[in-house]
Amino acid sequence: QVQLVESGGGSVQPGGSLRLSCAASGFTLGYVTIGWFRQGPGKERVGVSCISGVDGSTVYANSVKGRFTISSDNAKNTVYLQMNNLKPEDTAVYYCAADSSGYSRYPAPPEYDYWGQGTQVTVPS
What we know:
The protein is built from no helices and eleven strands. The chain is mostly beta strands.
């Protein structure tokens, strides 16, 4: 059974850091693409970053470049999103998702077929 479980969310002051984890089961990270997405209050879900298990390539949304880092620990079958210098506009529910085909090289929601339940990140203004 394919399952993705996010953890690590919370509330942090502007400029602070959080590390989100996405623990995967039911498939091997080396064959899929894992993406991180977020959905702010009253906003649509958008892509933040993704990492290809096939070739290790990574992509970041312009809004998080230089602040967020995606990484993968294949031994733990877990993908991480290190978020530094957090801003109030980063406040959202963060989701991880898997493109089981492994073809996706971009965090576009329609390309991902398995989703976690989400974890809240709050950065008060």
